[in-house]
Amino acid sequence: MAQTRKASRFIVPVAVAGVAAATIGLVPALAASGDPDLPEITAQQLIEKIAASDTQTLSGTFKVSTDLGLPLDGLASGLASGLGGGGGGPASADPTEKLTQLLSGSHTLRVAADGPERQKLTLLDGSDEYSLIHNGDDVWAYDSKSNEVFHEKAPAGEGPSRAPEGDAELPGTPKQLADEVLKAAGDTTSITVDGTAKVAGRDAYQLVIKPKQSGSTVASVKIAVDAANGTPLKFTLASVEGGKPVVDAGFTKVDFSKPAASDFAFKAPEGAKVTEGAAEKAAEEAEGAKENPFGDELPGGLGEAFGLGAGSGEGGVNVIGEGWTTIAKLDTGAPAPKTDEAPKEVQGLLDSLGDKVSGKFGSGTVFKTKLVNALLTDDGRVYVGAVTKDALVNAANADK
């Protein structure tokens, strides 16, 4: 049962959170009137320009807006809190909890970077500030609202956007995000240059990436690339549903000169509660050992026998399709809860989030956002991906 909870927590919410968490180094830029007149450039040349970019130093301000299309205000924030952990989870200054606020709404951030050893990110929410500082072997996080500090040692080269240990590293800068998108592009992708723009006072080319496949929820990915140094300045992810972009992120001010060393210095304020990440992790591991003395894998292949394997089969994850229409399938082995037995208020919430569907696979509910959709069948299978409702139903029918 614990493994089922762990797997479902990974599949559905992380798929949604991945995009927002990856935009930590991005934001919606302010475009000036009139597009700059720049020399023509091909998509291949612009991709090469991004790849050759070696921006080591910068400082500036950016904004990030995320709109997953959830019908209730604050629901995305609720998902974010769940991802950060619950039930006595991480300290409020822990980055794994705090930065998931970027899952919803609009946020203003300040950023500074001086090579791979020093970066600083400050999230501004009204009069409160949350700062994340990587300076050499130390990562510090400070939440002014709670007056709490989180600290842990980090290997050199791992900045404040690094993922928690055991998870895949999330892109943390505009260039890293652009690199990930371009690396994933193949025969299923169209890449073109669509004019120019003015971003944070800089001349930029517009690189547009679109799926060739039908069935994806992604309409396009647009990356504004600095014409002088190849640094991505703005990232916009649009949904086939239209309306506001799912992610609109870009610099509003940017300076590529070297920040002052004092920008990365940190000392815990007097009276602040300081949590050491290593001590917290050891406590979590000890608690986990009580629940499962064998760890994540049982000896002698017993994990596979009891459906706890990480591969295919019950309790595992299968991948269906490729490219933009990739779907992950999880077989929980347990019937879906009967929502008609839930209180009316809960039924209303579920109805607003999901659509009842049926087909050769049987029946189930599609829970939807503007980017990631998930089909939960009545017999306990889960299909999830950045694909449309029809694509999920078709995949379930073909898989039956």
How would you describe the overall organization of this protein?
The chain is of the alpha+beta class. The protein folds into two domains: 2-276, Lipoprotein localisation LolA/LolB/LppX (outer membrane lipoprotein receptor (LolB), chain A); 314-399, TATA-Binding Protein (2-Layer Sandwich). The protein is built from nine helices and 18 strands. It has a twelve-stranded mixed beta sheet. It has a six-stranded antiparallel beta sheet with strand order 13-14-18-17-16-15, sandwiched between helices. The radius of gyration is 22 Å and the shape is globular. The two termini are 24 Å apart. Residues 1-33, 72-90, 156-172 and 288-314 have low confidence and may be disordered.
Major beta sheet, strand line-up: 7-8-9-10-11-1-2-3-4-5-6-12
CATH architecture of the largest domain: Clam
Whole-number mean pLDDT: 75
- Using only CA atoms, what is the Rg? 22 Å
**Percentage beta strand:** 25-35%
The tally of strands reads: 18
Overall 3D geometry?
globular
Question: CATH first level of the largest domain: which class?
Answer: Mainly Beta
Q: Kindly identify the CATH topology of the largest domain.
A: outer membrane lipoprotein receptor (LolB), chain A
| Helix residue percentage | 10-25%
How large is the count of helical segments? 9
List the secondary-structure elements in sequence, H or E: HHEHHEEEEEHEEEEEEHHEEHEEEEH
Largest sheet: 12 strands, mixed
State the secondary-structure class: alpha+beta
Q: Total domains, how many?
A: 2
Tell me the name of the CATH homologous superfamily of the largest domain. Answer: Lipoprotein localisation LolA/LolB/LppX
Terminal Cα separation, in Å?
24 Å
Stretches where pLDDT is under 50 for at least 5 consecutive residues are 1-33, 72-90, 156-172, 288-314
